Write a sequence for this structure.
């Protein structure tokens, strides 16, 4: 159904129209993910995203060029981190976790909506059905990848809420120093397969079977 290890960019040469649709879906999916973070942050009483112009569905303010490129070449990526000030939150630890989980949940919601559209069998063209399926998979990949507990991914903020205070502080210190290197290790292919793909493919297949 889905070639996890085949770069999305390869579609540009084999099926340009399909690539354009899927790439547009990718940009929108990342935008929705980051907007969800910002919207929840605003609802929890922190005006930082609104003040920085991030409370919008304009992709230009949410996209991280490196994260988009990573998605094109490795199938896993990220957007520009949503800003927030923990001092504006009533319960900084708990609320930070809520803000973090909002992004992946938004992608799961998008995937569920696309699954419903496909099951309705109202899409007339196979290439468009295929494109929608790939966008669905992109949203599952975004949700799963961002739940990995490695800084600066959402999973690192979520797991911190469940750790004892001293352990959480130590974990944050280590992740701040080495998180980007770990992230790079996860997305780079080793013998043609990235560790992220090996880790997440079984989980994604379970979710896809449930949705499709």
């Amino acid at each position: 159904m889905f070639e996890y290890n085949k770069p999305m960019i390869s579609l540009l040469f084999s099926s340009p129209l399909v690539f354009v649709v899927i790439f547009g879906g990718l940009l929108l999916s990342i935008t929705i993910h980051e907007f969800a973070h910002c919207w929840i942050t605003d609802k929890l009483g922190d005006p930082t995203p609104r003040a920085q112009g991030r409370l919008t569905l304009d992709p230009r303010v949410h996209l991280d060029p490196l994260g988009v490129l990573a998605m094109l070449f490795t199938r896993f990526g990220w957007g520009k981190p949503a800003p927030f000030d923990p001092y504006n939150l009533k319960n900084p630890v708990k609320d930070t976790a809520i803000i973090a989980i909002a992004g992946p949940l938004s992608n799961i919601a998008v995937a569920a909506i696309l699954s419903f559209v496909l099951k309705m069998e109202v899409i007339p063209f196979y290439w468009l059905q295929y494109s929608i399926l790939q966008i669905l998979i992109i949203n599952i990949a975004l949700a799963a990848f961002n739940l990995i507990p490695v800084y600066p991914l959402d999973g690192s903020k979520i797991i911190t809420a469940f750790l004892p205070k001293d352990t959480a502080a130590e974990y944050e210190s280590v992740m701040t120093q080495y998180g980007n290197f770990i992230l790079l290790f996860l997305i780079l292919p080793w013998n043609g397969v990235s560790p992220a793909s090996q880790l997440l493919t079984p989980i994604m297949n379970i979710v896809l079977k449930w949705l499709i």
